[in-house]
Amino acid sequence: MNKKLSFDEIKALIKIHYPHVTYIKELSGGLASQTYLFEVGEQRFVFQVGSDLESYKKEGFIAKTFNAILPVRCVLEVHRTDDRMAYSISKYIEGDKLFDLNSQQLFDIVPAVLNTLESLESIEVSNDHGGYGYFDSTGHAPYPTWLDFVTAVYNSNIYSWDVLEERGLDSEVVNKAMEELKTHIKSIHFSDKNIVHGDLGSYNLLAKDNQITGIIDWSLSMYGDHLYDKANFLFWNEEKLQPLIKEIKNQYMTTTQTKEIIYCYMLRIGLEEIYNTVIRHEVGYDIDWVTNRLNEIIDHFL
């Protein structure tokens, strides 16, 4: 992550574009960005800084392409500061993050989340948007097939795992997860193309009046199998989202094959998190928790 900006620095950047700003408040954000709500008269906007320019441009692509179908933030502007820090300004979406809801609200929101997942599944991605896996701000993704994306994590030409122990992590869990993925990869026979958020959880869904009002933070979005989003919920296994996770299991793990496919995706999600955090030095979650979660999945999921 880039350096954190002070409130005065944030305010100065906003005033470049909105000199008559009347109110600024910090919002709880993700791992990468500082996020602020600001008001100009009766209009409300979101200011984000800290991610790379490509991520904010990608949010703009998502908004332009899918805003008629999905509740996504409309990105108005993307800029860089003189010292090359990227920031964006978007329209504000009313609603609270699922993380901030109480137990009853989290129970009541489950049907709306499931409807949102169905909306994501229903989107037919045009073949004009080529490839599979993580796409860029133009909608291009690099892998010829979905299976190429899934198996890339153990392709030594793409992922350089050999320096893992030099970075201080025992490679046992990584090797075990890779072997499990190789063993079960035959269960994946996917040729369609869904839009996959890639990081759905309690911080990236907004709700109001028992409806999902916003899906935010699309930097990890990809083209692929919609079950990857369900696997993401199951991998992170958030305590707050247990009523939702129970329903996802009931609705999507209906056959042995589907369970095996989700198992493969959970393994890949864990491996990707370890690689990005330990080898690429990206901001990530607690690596001990991630390795323990991978071991737990390997030992008990199937």
Question: Describe it for me?
Answer:
InterPro entries: AGP_Transferase, Aminoglycoside_PTrfase, Kinase-like_dom_sf. This is Aminoglycoside phosphotransferase domain-containing protein. By secondary structure, the protein is α+β, with helices and mostly antiparallel strands. It folds into 2 domains: 85 residues, Phosphorylase Kinase, domain 1 (2-Layer Sandwich); 205 residues, Aminoglycoside phosphotransferase (APH), C-terminal lobe (Aminoglycoside 3'-phosphotransferase, Chain: A, domain 2), CATH 3.90.1200. It is globular. The mean pLDDT is 94.
State the order of secondary-structure elements, H for helix, E for strand.
HEEEHEEEHHEHHEEEEHHHH
On the 0 to 100 scale, the average pLDDT is 94
End-to-end separation in angstroms reads 36 Å
Number of domains: 2
The fold-level CATH name of the largest domain is Aminoglycoside 3'-phosphotransferase, Chain: A, domain 2
What is the name of the CATH superfamily of the largest domain? Answer: Aminoglycoside phosphotransferase (APH), C-terminal lobe
The CATH C-level class name of the largest domain = Alpha Beta
Beta-strand content estimate: 15-25%
Structural class by sheet pairing and helices: alpha+beta
Sheet with most strands: 5 strands, antiparallel
Q: Give Rg in angstroms.
A: 20 Å
Poorly predicted ranges (pLDDT <50, ≥5 residues)?
none
CATH architectural type of the largest domain: Alpha-Beta Complex
> What is the overall silhouette?
globular
Protein name: Aminoglycoside phosphotransferase domain-containing protein
Pfam family, one: APH
InterPro entries: AGP_Transferase, Aminoglycoside_PTrfase, Kinase-like_dom_sf
